[in-house]
Amino acid sequence: MMDSNGSYTYSNVITIQLADITGRIVVTPNPVKDVANISITSGAAGKIQWTISDNTGRNLMSKTLEVKKGANTIAIDVSKLTAGQYYLKVTNGGTDNVVKLQKL
Q1: Is residue 64 assigned to a domain?
Q2: H helices then E strands: how many in the chain?
Q3: DSSP bridge pairs for 61
Q4: Side-by-side strand order, sheet with 46-53
Q5: What DSSP state is assigned to residue 52?
Q6: What's the burial of 88, exposed, middle or buried (CB within 10 Å: 0-12/13-18/19+)?
Q7: 27/81 Cα distance (integer angstroms)
Q8: pLDDT tens per residue, range 52-83
């Protein structure tokens, strides 16, 4: 960028690191009756934690597991949940991704 007097300076170059979850989190089927299949694309192998909470923010189910680099599919049995709207939160490296989940 050039100043009004014609001088210019360069800013320092900084490196940022993006979250390891590189793609969207997709829930199929949604609405779900018994088993929700969660598709996650991860930029690196590592641990993630998923949590299902209700509209009041109460955590009803959660699990920590390993994912590989690339496409991952996780099956979650939600058959014991009552019908309603829930939120699936996937946490990885301090980044939270939240998806609405409708239970029939």
Answers
A1: yes
A2: 0, 7
A3: 52
A4: 59-67, 46-53, 84-92, 95-103
A5: E
A6: buried
A7: 16
A8: 999 999 999 999 999 998 889 999 999 999 99
Q: Which domain holds residue 97?
A: 26-103
Question: In this structure, what CATH number is given to the domain that contains residue 30?
Answer: 2.60.40.1930
pTM (two decimals): 0.76
Question: Residue 19 pLDDT > 70, yes or no?
Answer: no
Q: Is 1's pLDDT higher than 60?
A: no
Residue 47 counted as domain residue: yes
Q: Distance between CA 84 and CA 70 in Å, rounded?
A: 31
Q: Which two tokens stand for residue 24?
A: 């969207």
Question: CA–CA separation, 51 vs 92, rounded Å?
Answer: 12
| All residues at 6 or more sequence positions from 38 whose CB lies less than 8 Å from its CB, including other chains | 25, 26, 27, 50, 73, 74, 75, 76, 88, 90
